[in-house]
């Protein structure tokens, strides 16, 4: 017996569920890429991306995924042999560092831990040791999608300031932009990057970078610049330069629609919606954890992301069995554990186009799987989550 007929639900951290309005926005003929309509579409999106990143700096749109935006950041600002510092808190800053190393950059990883956020004091201490200012850039993620951690980006910015260090401060917001507060200018960030397919409810294929004036000055002398990624070339006056070639018209239609929906909801409401739905997930997991098998990957509750929750399974229980049950019996696709958490954890994404029934439905299906597979877990988890939501969402 299976209960999976009906729409399959992706609870994976990207690509995420797209609104029907976003899908429909792409179902139309292409544009003359030399038309005023095209130019206006681009101008509006670039303006709104800077608004999302909360910066007076310049935004760029690439036909790429997050890995592409990583490379865009590195190639525009660094030279072969430059030293940079990647702040470990899971998988992604380290992965970004690996890309940099492959480009000939000297990458030091500030050792972190899969189960906690970056500690600003450790960043400050490392930077204070760098007396001859060898470190040119600091890479960190706001949300690490593998570990489920949220880093305190403002506090790390303060730590860099306290050390009086001039390295560029560069932040990955692929799994947080539009879902959790981010203040590029106020938090002292020089460059931020993101992608289309997670919190931004748009198909995979667009990547975004925003750079402030300081980053654009450093760019002038960067030795790793290449024509496709190059900011200066993209600032040329002909429209096609904005994309180093043909514009990805349909993805831009989709992004326009998604951003319109996000701004209509308001960013503040989106942040609060993500927070409450994440709290419902956390309340549920807390209760399941009473059975001694389920455990949060991130130990400190204040360091758990509002966009994805990484859940460990202890005592030899196999997350794959639970994932298979949820998918094959109920049509819910959970995220898998990646990196060091492979085979040890599963993930529930709660970012982008999600609402209470999507999250409560996913939690209900996971609990059904725990029951059916005989995996010990505390009782009343869903009830507690519903209570939390009904207490916070009043008539
Ligand atoms: C998904 C993700 C990436 C990589 O994005 P791709 O589009 O898969 O290349 C980078 N950083 C974070 C934090 C992510 O969640």
Write a structural description.
With 395 residues, this protein is α/β, with parallel strands linked by helices. The chain has helices at residues 20-25, 36-53, 66-77, 92-102, 120-129, 153-162, 213-219, 231-234, 249-265, 267-289, 319-330, 356-372, 381-392; strands spanning 9-11, 58-63, 83-87, 106-110, 135-141, 143-144, 149-150, 168-172, 191-195, 206-211, 294-296, 308-313, 332-336, 345-349. The chain has a 7-stranded mixed beta sheet, sandwiched between helices. Strands 1-13-14-12-11 form a 5-stranded mixed beta sheet. The protein has a two-stranded antiparallel sheet with strand order 6-7. The longest helix has 23 residues, at 267-289. It is globular. The two termini are 39 Å apart.
Strands of the biggest beta sheet: in what spatial order?
Answer: 2-10-9-8-5-3-4
Number of strands: 14
Q: Mind telling me the C-alpha Rg? A: 21 Å
Helical content (DSSP H or I, runs of 4+)? 40-55%
Offer a concise description of the structure:
By secondary structure, the protein is an alpha/beta fold.
What's the layout of helices and strands?
Elements: E1 9-11, H1 20-25, H2 36-53, E2 58-63, H3 66-77, E3 83-87, H4 92-102, E4 106-110, H5 120-129, E5 135-141, E6 143-144, E7 149-150, H6 153-162, E8 168-172, E9 191-195, E10 206-211, H7 213-219, H8 231-234, H9 249-265, H10 267-289, E11 294-296, E12 308-313, H11 319-330, E13 332-336, E14 345-349, H12 356-372, H13 381-392
Parallel strand pairs: 1-13, 3-4, 3-5, 5-8, 8-9
Antiparallel strand pairs: 2-10, 6-7, 9-10, 11-12, 12-14, 13-14
Pyridoxal-5'-phosphate binds near residues 66, 67 and 141.
